[in-house]
Amino acid sequence: MLSRTADSLFWLSRYVERADNTARIIDAASRLVAMPIAYAGTSNEWESALAAAGALWSFQERHPTADRDAVIDFLAFSPDNPSSIRSCIETARHNARSVRGALTTEMWEAMNAAWLELKRYDGRAMDRTALNDFLSRVKEACLRFDGSAYRTMLRNDVYFFSRIGVYLERADNTARILDVKYHVLLPETVSVGGGLDYFQWASILRSVSALTAYRWVYRQSLKPWLIADLLVLNEQMPRSLASCYENLSAFLDELSIAYGRQGAAQRTARSIRTRLQNASISDIFQKKGLHEFLSEFIADNGRLGAAIAEQYLT
Predict the structure, then answer these.
(1) What is the C-alpha to C-alpha distance for residues 85 and 176, in angstroms, rounded to an integer?
(2) What pTM did the predictor assign?
(3) How far apart are CA 112 and CA 91, in angstroms?
(4) Do residues 132 and 202 lie in contact, with contact meaning Cβ atoms separated by under 8 Å?
């Protein structure tokens, strides 16, 4: 496979996953803002949404305050934000067109339909109903594309590069959302485990579709260390860091078999997965701290992305 084809497949999947994640972040912020002040607290949930999406600094360069309409426009529609939902879908479609022959008919139709459908939203002063409809459409469109890839693609290098993009992006998104919880969402004057903390953690779980999974696994009220355990170390949870790296290691190993050699990408993924397998949530909280652990993970995840690019995409 040509490196430019692999690169387009990799980024096609990353941008679709990023669009889905951004929609979930906006939805979580919208839910918290709609709560009574006694539950929602005094923190700026729209600012936290920008931080979770990795767009806070670029937003602040263009806007003086993080109010609702400005944040929604920036995260969902702004051409000035390369990670906005609209920008992600447009870039994903561009990549899909460049590798049209490598995609199944169902994948192309799902991608093109998403682009055409989301074009009709302009984002100007969307009320809550319109916003919910838009976010639902985005999540459904991303799910259709992901499902069509899973159900129709041959299990070859085309599929492997596509899935590697999904799981690398998903790991970064989950880590960033968890990190923001401790440094933006929860005010310094509020103790962990209080009423405000409960609703914020619930919003985080909803944003990664894990609230029901938490109840199935732990069968008790929301506790920060158990939520972190689910989203960091539980390989049964599809959006957890451990699950993402289980899949990244497997698909990178498949590529090494297909191409007859291993490299830095395989070694890096294997090393990160081993650290996750050997970690315990008590050690993360007591010895290193969740923020420090997640910051290190995000940096390691970025290094894996660079190793993949150097080994396969350039």
Answers:
(1) 17
(2) 0.91
(3) 12
(4) no
